[in-house]
């Protein structure tokens, strides 16, 4: 046989060998996949999800059948035999509602009748048998945060707004928000089904009024939330009586009377030079501003400003010369001039220093904060309440501070347990890998045998052609 005749033969032989090898590989893959697919179909999958409001059990593709037992707070939920087992077909789905404001204990047992799952005996982690259990976490009640607008002029008294941030909301729950006035009458409302946080603004409200806000969880009232907020009255002119200066304890000081403050509004007092400032709450309506640590023979200006409106009051005075040596305290003063103390004093003039102590007594209800260097000018607000002299600004700020830190928008405390029936995933995977390796090894031997047979056939056929 010449070389030209051999070439088509060799090509045909090579094609036959490749086809036989491919068929062997496909057959081997089918042998490996068939038992694995059958095992997955028989075992099925189980999904158990526990939230603060419900327990959801979903069982799927149990081709060999099985049974399930569900116990919540010690009570069996499945109707079946005396042990609480209920027979299932290829699938099973149930939802059990909870009281969402308390914790619940649950146990779910799934017994698969698939091959390799100990037959009808339940053994968690063996074959398709599985166990889910645990406590639930109670749902959080709705949290309501409210903020009010500021009325900066009397003409806007009935054009105020109320801003709400509503959090800790649950999915698929309808909520009703109601705004009530002081008499309890509903002045506005709205309904929604949004989670986990909603922001809402109500308008057309009145300054100087207190409003209640209630957010009702319409699926469970115990998870509702409420709060109240007062919209401060409109800003008005501040009555600041001019400064009166004096020498107290050998040091220059001054006082001024403050009146017509609006409850609920905040103010800032600032002294120049020196830069001393103090925050003043308007809850007391009036009081006295005391300025200490002042320099001799210096003109000071005191300005009190409404923090949320363009309203301010101003007073100015020049301090007297106060001797550092012992002598009578001098008093004097006026809005625009300087005064000299009536008591005699000797020694060189200069700026006196104060010990920084506040006047004795406390001012009920005053809430103010401020800072000033202990060696420099200092502002003290003494609220005029029941004849009490007043308190140091910084001390009042500390005493009046409340920790209002709250939790952010939370979830509904849901916890879930989701998995595939069949026990330990690692062990199952290892067994599957071992079986697959065995089938691949056998398939390789088969493919090699078929390839050898094809080569033998090709050689024999070639020899026969040569003999011819």
From TrEMBL:
Composition bias type Low complexity, residue spans: 321-337, 356-373
Record-linked InterPro entries: TAT_signal
Record region (Disordered): 321-373, 397-419
Signal peptide: 1-40
Keyword terms: Membrane, Signal, Transmembrane, Transmembrane helix
Biased composition annotated in UniProt, kind: Gly residues: 338-355
Compositionally skewed regions (Acidic residues) per UniProt: 401-410
TM region(s), chain numbering: 438-459
Taxonomy of the source species: Bacteria, Bacillati, Actinomycetota, Actinomycetes, Micrococcales
Full protein name: Fibronectin type III domain-containing protein
């Amino acid at each position: 046989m010449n070389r030209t005749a051999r070439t088509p033969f060799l090509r045909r032989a090579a094609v036959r060998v490749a086809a036989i090898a491919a068929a062997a590989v496909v057959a081997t893959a089918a042998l490996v996949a068939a038992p694995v697919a059958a095992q997955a179909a028989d075992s099925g999958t189980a999904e158990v999800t526990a939230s603060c409001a419900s327990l959801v059990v979903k069982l799927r593709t149990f081709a060999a059948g099985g049974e399930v037992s569900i116990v919540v707070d010690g009570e069996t939920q499945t109707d079946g035999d005396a042990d609480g087992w209920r027979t299932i077909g290829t699938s099973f789905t149930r939802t059990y509602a909870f009281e969402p404001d308390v914790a619940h204990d649950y146990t779910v047992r799934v017994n698969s009748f698939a091959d390799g799952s100990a037959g009808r005996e339940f053994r968690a982690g063996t074959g398709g048998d599985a166990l889910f259990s645990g406590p639930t976490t109670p749902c959080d009640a709705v949290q309501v945060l409210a903020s009010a607008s500021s009325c900066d002029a009397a003409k806007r008294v009935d054009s105020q707004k109320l801003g709400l941030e509503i959090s800790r909301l649950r999915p698929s729950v309808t909520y009703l928000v109601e705004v009530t006035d002081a008499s309890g009458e509903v002045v506005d409302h709205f309904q929604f089904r949004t989670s986990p946080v909603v922001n809402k603004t109500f308008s057309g409200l009145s300054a100087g009024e207190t409003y209640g806000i209630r957010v009702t969880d319409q699926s469970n009232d115990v998870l509702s939330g409420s709060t109240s907020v007062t919209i401060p009255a409109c800003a008005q002119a501040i009555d600041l009586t001019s400064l009166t200066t004096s020498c107290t304890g050998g040091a220059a000081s001054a006082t001024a009377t403050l009146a017509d403050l609006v409850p609920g509004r905040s103010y800032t007092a600032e002294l120049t030079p020196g830069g001393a400032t103090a925050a003043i709450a308007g809850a007391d309506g009036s009081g006295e501003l005391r300025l200490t640590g002042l320099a001799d023979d210096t003109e000071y200006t005191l300005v009190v400003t409404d923090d949320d409106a363009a309203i301010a009051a101003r007073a100015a005075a020049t301090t007297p010369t106060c001797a550092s040596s012992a002598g009578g305290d001098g008093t004097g003063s006026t809005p625009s001039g300087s005064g000299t103390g009536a008591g005699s004093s000797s020694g060189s003039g200069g700026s006196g220093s104060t010990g920084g102590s506040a006047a004795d007594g406390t001012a009920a209800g005053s809430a103010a904060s401020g800072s000033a260097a202990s060696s420099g000018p200092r502002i003290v607000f003494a609220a005029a309440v029941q004849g009490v002299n007043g308190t140091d600004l910084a001390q009042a700020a500390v005493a009046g501070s409340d920790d209002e830190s709250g939790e952010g928008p939370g979830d509904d405390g849901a916890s879930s347990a989701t998995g595939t029936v069949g026990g330990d995933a690692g062990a199952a995977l290892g067994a599957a890998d071992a079986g697959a390796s065995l089938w691949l090894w056998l398939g390789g031997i088969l493919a090699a045998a078929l390839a050898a047979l094809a080569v033998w056939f090709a050689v024999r056929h070639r020899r026969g052609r040569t003999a011819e």
